[in-house]
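# nightly structure sweep
# worker-07 picked up a monomer target from the shared queue
# config: single-sequence mode, recycle default, output format = structure tokens
# input follows
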Amino acid sequence: MPWQRTIQYLINKPVGVSLIDGTGVSGVLCSITNNEIYLMEYLYHTQFALKHYPLNQIRDVLPFPPCTIPSPPLY
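# output follows
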């Protein structure tokens, strides 16, 4: 899987994770150990949760794109 070749470079970065069941999650990729990824996800208000997903349940892991702020119109 192509994403597995570059996933080490995404540790401590915000990522989107596409799961094989068609759902997706996002968060900060904390680590990859024991054939699982560990993702810090936002829950609510000031709550975050460290969740883990088996590698064999993941279709793709993508870095968040950079923010593109439109230039103000020229008058």
